[in-house]
Automatic annotation (TrEMBL), chains B, D:
<protein>
    <submittedName>
        <fullName>ABC transporter permease</fullName>
    </submittedName>
</protein>
<dbReference type="InterPro" id="IPR000515">
    <property type="entry name" value="MetI-like"/>
</dbReference>
<feature type="domain" description="ABC transmembrane type-1">
    <location>
        <begin position="81"/>
        <end position="261"/>
    </location>
</feature>
<dbReference type="InterPro" id="IPR035906">
    <property type="entry name" value="MetI-like_sf"/>
</dbReference>
<keyword id="KW-1003">Cell membrane</keyword>
<feature type="transmembrane region" description="Helical">
    <location>
        <begin position="90"/>
        <end position="111"/>
    </location>
</feature>
<keyword id="KW-0813">Transport</keyword>
<feature type="region of interest" description="Disordered">
    <location>
        <begin position="1"/>
        <end position="26"/>
    </location>
</feature>
<keyword id="KW-1133">Transmembrane helix</keyword>
Automatic annotation (TrEMBL), chains C, E:
<dbReference type="Pfam" id="PF00005">
    <property type="entry name" value="ABC_tran"/>
</dbReference>
<dbReference type="GO" id="GO:0016887">
    <property type="term" value="F:ATP hydrolysis activity"/>
</dbReference>
<dbReference type="InterPro" id="IPR027417">
    <property type="entry name" value="P-loop_NTPase"/>
</dbReference>
<dbReference type="InterPro" id="IPR003593">
    <property type="entry name" value="AAA+_ATPase"/>
</dbReference>
<keyword id="KW-1278">Translocase</keyword>
<keyword id="KW-0813">Transport</keyword>
<keyword id="KW-0472">Membrane</keyword>
<keyword id="KW-1003">Cell membrane</keyword>
<feature type="domain" description="ABC transporter">
    <location>
        <begin position="16"/>
        <end position="230"/>
    </location>
</feature>
């Protein structure tokens, strides 16, 4: 196994799990944390699975994965978050489709990734429109599968996040709704209990770097797009557009954040989308508040 | 000269032990095959009970059994199993049928070999699971996607075994059949098919495995039912016991299909026992 | 090098004609131009050393060798008994005999053919359960049951004991008298050749090196002085010292 | 009585056509095998050019080629390919080696059959791709995960073909070798191995395919390199040309490995040509 | 039912002893209690009808049949020539002969053995490229080259023409005189049995039904009157009508 490190002697590098778009990509792309060992994950659930297996020490995910992970009794703590990014996820339909509001999708097929931030957005959208899950034909598709299905008209709408969102945003695609006013769509930093116990300071240093890089990116959006486009292998212009709305500054976790997460968890439990009850409030770890403030 | 021909025979035992012992009746023979699976499960349970194996890494067999019982009682297991079996069966039928046809054409006809075999050899290495994005475009995200994946998975083992089975038939027997006035179809039925049957059975064995494999991936794309979906869902909530239950179900299906194939083989390949004994 | 048969002028139309048959395996030429005619109802014995090309010739005459050159024509139907029995291992004895047979009462014909070769009780045996001689007799039954115009027999009685061999020879003679089929009989046994054949050929050096009519009556015995003379002549031609 | 034996021979052609034409030299034989792949590509290009096939559904071969050339020139393709090949090679070595060993034990020894075969039959149906969650727990998410998946994928075809190949050896030849004083090891070397070789080759063919298949899934879990990763990444960004390029690379690898196996077969199985001709 | 050999009291120690050998295939009993001793250097011919159990007995004596009952002991080494040639199809002729051979100059010994059976030029041929008789001779060479104490031969010359057969019989006689091995020779040819054997046995009804010492000198010919008498007696026992 390559997950040596949680042992005695040389603890090895910090093992960071990141997704294609989260703020951590920029840290990796700029080479700001040369000692870290990076693992790329397709989605939040895949990342929390590695967290459970003890294969990574820290990872960044969207809104829903912490809830699903907590429901799965995966040991982790939430050590950081970001400012809300409600424009970073949206419901997309074809431009020539008749749907004007989300309620028009009643009885239609909607694709989304299960257990991701968009899953929570769906819950909120249903709630806001007085609908239930039974009113839609939900198709759970990963981003890589959702795109061809959406492009080929096999689903009527696709709920997706950046950068897939920005990549799909073309003249023949229309945004039906985004998360504004419905969900915060924050990023969450999850850390394994072992690393918090034994390498807390090291993690703090890393988080400081993370914060600095994020702030630099917000201050230099053009350069940020230049650095990230080749790393993500997407056009610079698309990267620019997506980053402009989705890259928000980091923020410390607070009891208020815990309440927000708990509300999400309770919402999922109420819909029986996760087996309850889920106590996620207690997963909040505020020790890095100063670093991220 | 002959003096040297017969000289210096090397020292050796007059009766070396046979490569394979005879197939005569052995007491408890039927149950001996159960020994190692039972032992395996026992060791696993003991390891889990003693705490050597943490339940997150691998839950105890008894825990898996309890989960299985729970899901079986409320009917969940049956629904999922039925859906998976239907998909696997349909896919096997389509993929296997096509493989049998093309394999026979390539194995029997020179022209068929030249035309059919090269594309198949190219396609052979296409990991059909890598085709998922293209398949979504071509056949959609519904049942046909799952069935296509199963059919693709089942195709290759059957094709290759059909081809090899036909190629390996003793040509002298085909000649004998020709001199008995058997036409092409009759030769197929009386010589080629029975001669290739052992290879076909092997292909079927491998194809059944490949079918499940494809299904487990296929059922992760927009499925609401099926054992693959059940496992996938459990994986999301880290319900290792359900994941392992899914695996146990697969294992049992493996044993069952093996049993069925063994019976079928015993029936159709009786003549081989004669070969053995002789 | 007398390769034409002396019977070419007799009225019986030839059931087999072969002209300039040549076959080489790589650099070695096994058949260097064989001409052969067999008239309807004629039994021809083919003798020759081990590896002289007898089986090769037989396969060519049966139309099984696509790499041989020359011309061969069979008028009517032919059945073959190969040097190895070539029974289908996955068919019981009776089904092996019935292979490709059609017409009325197949089962009855198969039964009787197996009875003729003394294996009436092994109908349901698998080929792998037969002794060498039994398998050979089943192969003979498989050929006889089809009532062909021409029988191509490659040492059909090689694995049989003296008694069974006599019986089989008797059977062949009787069936031939009844049905008048022609036969090309490859054999190592000079006496067998003289007992059964109208003509004996010796294959040597890739050609028919010797042709010997056997003008003996239908009831022949080795005690016949003419038989003895022919026997000596054939053995002589085959290089076997005779006392 | 004999009258009926020889009666009523059915009417039939004196010389039915052979099941398989002879293997003599055919002009252009070597290139005939290229015909159907070339035709396939030509039709595909034509369909793309004429607009029948939209580039999103399937980009034209020329477009794929251009992408390939671009990625080849900047070295991307070579890096990914090398990594994938390393993983596949290691996994094949481990899984294939183990399969050969266990297959031989089960095929040769009665006891081995009773102990080894039932668990393998159970495991056979375990879709190893369904094991990913457990494998992540056991071996982590690094290279060992990918190699384990490949090894698992390669195991079964080789195991089953080894087993069947050994079982199908003509026991009479083994007997003959025993009477020649060959001990167990010598019999293995001189009788069992050459006799099972055709089956082993078939197993290897299937195993190579299974290895790629496993890799394509394995390289979706925390990989930064490999053809599977390349395709995965392209999938996420809907770069169909790169996806198809990946498939083309796989197809070419399929052809190459087939060619290599054909050469190896021709070398080690010369004796079969004799069998054919006879 | 005289199953014991008359030579039991002679000084030559037995190279093979078999007692109460029984073998049944399902309901049919093929061997119903065979007793057999072969003294060192003795050649015993085994005759019997097709399917009488000769090959079965040979396999048992070679230790290849685990389902037979009774006791068999071979003192020294044994080599077998089976009724079918059983050459490994994936080994060239020379390698088939050399199979399992060790000691000095294997290549030379193989060369000479193949030369003895007249196949010096087919060393590099594949078994599938041999004629029936050639394959059989390779199998004989494979047995002879091991210089065993006991040769078990199942119709070793069945597929050979008269001349080659004579040569092989001569070879066997010469080698035996030189090396004094014992042999059990299954044959269908009564003359061959009388030419080669010290004793002839007839297997019938699952037991050794007849035992016939062959008190002829080392230089035997079929013209010998004693030979003729023995021949008639044997044929008679086999049920073949003699004139
Ligand atoms: N496939 C082959 N490749 C090369 N040589 C071959 C092949 N088949 C046969 N031969 C050779 O051709 C010659 C004739 O073989 P054939 O089987 O016709 O002999 P035969 O007269 O039937 O001998 P026998 O009496 O021993 O059966 C032999 O020398 C044999 O080695
Ligand atoms: N595996 C088997 N199953 C059933 N019966 C068998 C099997 N093997 C042999 N037999 C039968 O046992 C009897 C003796 O066979 P065996 O081969 O010993 O005869 P044989 O004396 O060698 O005859 P031949 O002279 O024809 O070679 C035959 O009737 C045969 O059918
Ligand atoms: Mg021959
Ligand atoms: Mg026999």
């Amino acid at each position: 196994g390559d997950d040596a490190g949680a042992g005695d002697g040389d603890p090895g590098p910090l093992r960071i799990g990141y997704q294609r778009f989260g703020g951590l990509s920029l840290v990796k792309a700029r080479g700001a944390a040369p000692d870290a060992q990076w693992s790329l994950f397709e989605s939040g659930p895949a990342l929390t699975e590695a967290l459970k297996a003890g294969s990574i020490d820290l990872g960044e995910v969207g809104e829903a994965p912490p809830v699903f992970a907590a429901a799965g009794r995966i040991p982790f703590s939430v050590v950081g978050t970001s400012a809300p990014v409600p424009q970073g996820e949206a419901v997309l339909v074809k431009a020539d489709s008749p749907y004007r509001t989300f309620a028009d999708l009643k009885g239609r097929t909607v694709a989304l990734n299960k257990g991701s931030n968009v899953h929570w957005l769906l819950v909120r959208l249903l709630e806001a429109n007085g609908m239930t899950l039974a009113d839609l034909e939900v198709r759970y598709l990963k981003p890589a599968e959702g795109r061809p299905a959406f492009d080929n008209g096999q689903v009527d709408a696709w709920i997706i996040w950046d950068p897939y969102f920005a990549l799909t945003e073309r003249p023949d695609v229309r945004i039906l709704a985004d998360a504004t006013g419905l969900a915060s769509n924050r990023q969450y930093l999850l850390a394994s209990p072992e690393v918090l116990a034994s390498r807390s300071a090291e993690l703090g240093t890393f988080l400081r770097t993370f914060r600095e890089v994020t702030d630099w990116g917000i201050a230099n959006p053009d350069e940020r797009a230049k650095v990230l486009a080749p790393e993500l292998k997407i056009p610079e212009e698309t990267a620019h557009r997506a980053l402009a709305r989705s890259a928000q500054p980091l923020a410390p976790v607070t009891p208020a954040i815990g309440d927000e997460l708990q509300a999400i968890a309770d919402g999922f439990v109420a819909l029986e989308l996760v087996p309850g009850p889920v106590d996620i409030r207690s997963r909040i770890d505020e020790r890095y508040g100063e670093v991220l403030r | 000269m002959s003096g040297t021909v017969l000289a210096e025979a090397p020292e050796r035992a007059a009766r070396p032990a046979p490569v394979r012992p005879g197939r005569r009746y052995r007491p408890g023979g039927r149950w001996r095959r159960a020994a190692s699976p039972v032992l395996l499960v026992a060791v696993w349970e003991a390891a889990a009970r003693s705490g050597v194996l943490s339940p997150e890494k691998l839950p105890a067999p008894s825990a898996v059994l309890a989960t299985g019982w729970r899901l079986a009682r409320d009917g969940t297991l049956a629904t999922h199993l039925l859906d998976s079996l239907t998909r696997a069966g349909l896919g096997l039928l389509i993929g296997g049928g096509l493989a049998l046809l093309l394999g026979a054409v390539a194995g029997l006809l020179r022209l068929g070999d030249d035309l059919v075999d090269p594309p198949v050899q190219m396609a052979r290495m296409l990991p059909h699971l890598g085709l998922v994005p293209l398949l979504i475009i071509w056949v959609g995200i519904g049942e046909s996607l799952k069935i296509s994946l199963v059919a693709l998975g089942a195709f290759f083992p059957i094709y290759f075994n059909t081809y090899a089975g036909i190629r390996d038939i003793d040509e002298r027997l085909v000649e004998a059949a020709r001199t008995c006035g058997l036409g092409l179809l009759a030769r197929l039925r009386h010589v080629v098919l029975p001669g290739a049957l052992p290879a076909l059975f092997l292909g079927l064995r491998l194809a059944i495995g490949a079918a499940w494999l494809s299904l487990v991936v296929g059922e992760q794309v927009n499925a609401q039912t099926g054992i693959g979906f059940l496992m996938m869902e459990a994986r999301e909530f880290s319900q290792t016991d359900v994941v392992v239950l899914g695996l146990v179900v697969y294992a049992l299906l493996g044993l069952l299909s093996d049993l069925a194939l063994r019976v079928a083989e015993r029936r159709t390949l009786t003549w081989r026992r004669g070969l053995r004994a002789s | 090098m007398a390769t034409r048969t002396a019977r070419e002028l007799t009225p019986a139309p030839p059931v087999l004609t072969a002209r300039a048959v040549r076959r080489a395996f790589g650099p070695t030429t096994v058949l260097a131009g064989v001409d052969l005619d067999i008239a309807g109802g004629e039994v021809v014995a083919l003798l020759g050393g081990s590896g002289s090309g007898k089986s090769t010739l037989l396969r060519i005459l049966a139309g099984l060798d696509r790499e041989a050159t020359g011309e061969t024509t069979v008028h009517g139907t032919a059945a073959v008994v190969f040097q190895e029995h070539r029974l289908l291992p996955w068919k019981r004895v009776a089904h092996n005999v019935a292979l490709g047979l059609s017409g009325p009462d197949v089962a009855g014909r198969v039964d009787r053919a197996l009875a003729e070769v003394g294996l009436a009780d092994r109908q349901r045996a698998w080929p792998a359960e037969l002794s060498g001689g039994q398998a050979q007799r089943v192969a003979v039954a498989r050929a006889l049951v089809r009532a062909p115009d021409l029988l191509l027999l490659d040492e059909p009685f090689g694995a049989l004991d003296a008694l069974t061999r006599l019986r089989m020879q008797g059977l062949l003679r009787r069936l031939r008298a009844e049905h008048g089929f022609a036969a090309l009989l490859v054999t190592h046994d000079v006496e067998e050749a003289l007992l059964l054949a109208d003509r004996a050929l010796v294959l040597d050096g890739g050609v028919i090196a010797e042709e010997l009519p056997v003008p003996l009556g239908p009831t022949r015995t080795p005690d016949d002085p003419a038989f003895g003379a022919l026997r000596r002549r054939l053995l002589d031609r085959l290089g076997v010292p005779t006392p």
